[in-house]
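Thought: the user wants the 3D structure for the chain below. I'll pass the sequence to the structure tool as-is, report back what it returns, then summarize two notable features.
Action: structure_tool
Action Input:
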Amino acid sequence: MRRVIWSVMSSLDGYSAAPGTGFETIDWFRADAEWLDYSVELLDQAETLLFGGLTFAGMEQYWPSAEGPVADRMNALDKLGFSHTARETAWPNARVATDPVASVGELRRGDGGAALLMGSANLAGTLSAHGLIDEYRFAVNPVLLGGGTPVALAGSARSELDLADTRVFGSGIVEMRCVPQVTPANG
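Observation:
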């Protein structure tokens, strides 16, 4: 069985993206050299990358022409983006699907490396509500945004998590790795 890991940057006040439509939505990420090295480590654990529609569109525009170790891995890995309407993509090793619950459920039942969900708060909420996320990695940045896209969207199901590990980066990012609580009701 494959694991699904959700990795998301967060502000201290719980937002995964600042207000806006361009780079200003993520210009607060403290992605220094140490974080980029960690990103390579994380991508090396993955076999498939998962993205919600908006995140996929942004990644699809940026990564094919980017260079470096992170870009090499982003472009080489299998990618699955989700959209309400099926469409073609020119991003190598990528496809777009319309049913995340069925697609990720099928992916989890297969063999292979982890599936890494990056950002994509809407998709994460859907997958979490259906018990399809095995590990949550919240990279909390020391910034208050005051608004934007919340990590947990309104209407998301309540999820009881256990803290599995923490890691503190020199930039001030604190990553909390959490796993769903195992109770008699859910396994």
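Final Answer: Structure generated. The chain has one domain: 4-180. Strands lie at 4-11, 15-17, 46-51, 78-82, 94-97, 114-118, 135-141, 149-150, 161-168, 174-180.
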